[in-house]
Amino acid sequence: MAISEIKTNTPDEMISRILSISNSIRHLSLTESSDNSFEAKRFKRKQLESLLIGSQLSIDSDVDDELASSFLQMPDSGDHSHIAITNVKNIGCDFESITMESEVSVLDAHKKENSICDSCSNSKSKQPDFTKGIVNGFSCWRRGQTSRIFGFVSEYKLTTKGNEKTFLEHKKTYTSKEINSLFFGNESLDAKIIIGREQIRNSMMIMIHINQNDNVESSKVSEIKGLLTQQMLVSKSISVLTEDVKTSHRDHNDQIPEFIQTILEKTQHAWYLEGPSRNSRGIIGLALINNEDKYSNNSVFNNVLQTFAIKNHVWFGKYDLSSMNPSMNQNLGVSKMPSKSSVLCILLDTIVDLAGGDALEI
Question: Considering the entire predicted model, what is its pTM?
Fold first, then answer.
């Protein structure tokens, strides 16, 4: 497809797309479990039953400390579904500070600043490791996403056109049949939302392909040079045109760091405020995969990524394609990545609300 025919996207349009998915996740979380275990599905079913018959306690309801303690000592959550009396261990929490004797409710684990949940999300033991094929290191019902219903991978290609600004081309967004059905027939978002990438659908990820091979001389210059060659003509201006193209190419490269910085900041703000849960941290990880791409070592570009990671307490990893887990390459769709190109993976917080989105948060 010629560049002029491409449906281009601004960062804001990209954000609009992922927030539409976030809204879909909120609705689905009313009835669907984010964890694939029998216990999680039973918890969701009982919770939904309580909600439908109107017996669900408000999250803000006071629960007697002694009563709550007795519930928190129970071995499982099968007979109750209110998060103030459900032990955090019973939703798969394996954070280092939680022991078998801990009497911490799901509500208490999430409602305070510097909560157990926040601390866990920053834990080194939960960090991705692309060389081992790990994208989502969490095991709890809120972040583990073992049902693979709510996960998605949204792919974009970063492109430049002539001497104009850098823009995004939305390639495809892979997700589950449940989310896909909510976007059926939606043309307004240039949907391209399809079912796929199940192996890594326990993550919520934006992938931006950066291919410097595509940022070559404009078609206009190519056409002029072709005509001159056919007519056996020599033009002194052709060297000037070529030099202008080279200068323009460098300018495009210089635009990339600022463009990526804008994407990161807008995505962080949007997912933090309007992600599937009010407990969302926004972006929780960045991974830069390169295939013999010198630009991946560009100091300005790397400074943007590292500064963002430090400022927002975000994990950041860099990988050579050759060092990656082969099955991981296949799952991410990068096994045939062109040489001298790279992919920036933006990992969004996968946390969802057990109690059903906006209806009952947490």
Answer: 0.80
